[in-house]
Each structure stands twice: as structure tokens, then as C-alpha cells.
Amino acid sequence: MVDIQGGLDTSIEIPSGLGSGNADLVLSGKNVDGSDVVVGLPVLLEVTTSSGGFTESLFAGLLFAIGALFIFLVMRKKRDDEEVEQLVLD
After folding, report:
1. DSSP tag of 79
2. How many CB atoms lie within 10 A of CB 2?
3. How would you write 26-77 as a 3-class SS string?
4. Which of 34, 36, 82, 88 has a 20 to 30 A CA-CA distance from 25?
5. Angle, CA 12 vertex, CA 29 and CA 7 arms, to 5°
6. What is the pLDDT of residue 34?
7. What is d(CA 25, CA 31) in angstroms, rounded to the nearest whole number?
8. 25 strand-pairing partners
9. Is 38 exposed, middle or buried (0-12, 13-18, 19+ CB in 10 A)?
10. Single pTM value for the model
11. How many angstroms from the chain centroid is the CA of residue 41?
């Protein structure tokens, strides 16, 4: 049932076998004058489950990669500074 302004407030149970992706939600019923009404709404389904530690592992890997990049940049700057100093001394 919709309210006087045409708003609908309901809960919809999504079957557990559906995966993530685009879908169409189709609502059907009767208009005030008794005529049939069908409304289709595009929706995006996203399956959310427990990560089993994958997210934490991914985060740790990302932090490791950022740390390695930082060390690489520091070492490169140090090497560049040493090369410039060597050129100045020569």
C-alpha cells in the first residue's frame, strides 16, 4: 500500500542465491481507479559477507608497499645527493 502522497515503505527479502550485479525490482498493483500498475526500478545488488581476514591482509600489504616505496624514494634521494656532491667535488 502507498500513502496519500504515493510513497511506499516496505522491506524486500532478496534471495540468498543472487550474486552482485544489476537487477530490476518490479512492483505491481492496482491504481485507485482499479487499473493495473507496474513499475520497474533498476537496482545494484552488492553481496556483503565476512572477509575472513582478507581485508586486514590487503591493508597490511598496502602498508608494506607504501613503506617500501618510501624507503626507495629516500634511498634514491640519498644516492642523487651523493652523485651531486661527487660532481661538485670533481
Report:
1. H
2. 13
3. EEEEECCCCCEEEEEEEEEECCCCCCCCHHHHHHHHHHHHHHHHHHHHHHHH
4. 34
5. 55
6. 84
7. 18
8. 41
9. exposed
10. 0.42
11. 21
CB atoms within 10 A of CB 22: 8
Q: Cα–Cα–Cα angle for 15, 18, 21, nearest 5°? A: 135
Question: Residue 5 gets which letter from DSSP?
Answer: T
Grid cell in block for residue 38: 507496474
Confidence band (pLDDT; 50, 70, 90) for 23? confident
At residue 81's C-alpha, the angle toward residues 77 and 86, to 5°, is 150
pLDDT in tens, 46-55: 777 655 666 6
Residue 17's DSSP bridge partners are: none
Grid cell 543472487 is found at 18
